[in-house]
Task: structure prediction
Amino acid sequence: MPSLPPFPGRLALQQRVLPAYRVAFLSELAARCAGGLAVFAGLPRPAEGITSAEHIPGAEFTAGRNLHRLGGPLYTCRQPGLLAWLEAEDPAALIVEANPRYPDTPKAIQWMHARNRPVLGWGLGAPPLSGLLAAPRQRARQRLLTTLDGLLAYSAQGAAEYRALGLPNVFVAHNAAEPAPAEPPPNRPPAFNGPPVILFIGRLQSRKRLDLLLQACAALPAAPRLLIVGDGPARPEFEAAARRHFPAAKFLGAQHGPPLADLFRQADLFVLPGTGGLAIQQAMSHGLPVIAAEGDGTQNDLVRPGHNGWRVQPGSLASLQTALADALQDPARLRAYGQASYRIVAEKINTQRMADAFIHALAQTTAR
Result:
């Protein structure tokens, strides 16, 4: 994508919550807005385990009040201060979460459109819905999406889902939490130095499926070193699973800064057996090949079979076992895959390129 001039006006961006991993991207986006960036978000529900940020370098952050109602498919989140914030900021363009569960968002869209200002939606995509409420939920989704002037999707898969609904002006902004790496990847030897080191990083929740990784490691002909970084509500559950299946697994808790960087340097392979995906980009910036479960599209954009890693069937122990055995049988190929991982995040999927995509979408939308 050619270099674009900054967005000439003030940009406003609404989020339900502001996860800490979004700060690097939003700071980059703020630097691309001549009139500045204003962000509005509230707090997550306590059970969500999301680490929230309170400051964005270079941007103005307003902490809103989230009113969470019900749960599951009936969940909604009111943001009663959203319209007052919008009136105070008076932006030239607005980006909102493309989610019909937030009843105050349509009011913000109407406010912008009454002043002939564009509103872009930002979201995962529009995967098929299921269950008794699928039909009304789909209607609510369609109502919201058709009021937007454009859509920014986290992945190519998400963009295809929006286009399948007949929506125009769909752009891909590959989901990224890290800037392009400033340092070259570690220089790993062509052969393993002792048992291969498998690294997992993420919040320890049941959906991460560490139980599958523990069982898959136990089934390998030669035991690897398995390093598990992170904490969370499922840690006791996973530690119990480790005692049953793979007692050699090391639970290292949350790690940051130089200690985390050292773990990346030690590792030979990064594995994410469940849902999630942003830790993949961080691992790739350290030159690691990846095994990841197929997911919402983020993993699919980052992990390219035959190039830098393996995708496995969600919830399939057999698929994970096969991929692990294949990955560890050829150290030289694993190193080549790690170099390919590094090139992907250095050149294509990072916070700078994500900000480029947002500015491109804004330029295309405001030019109409």
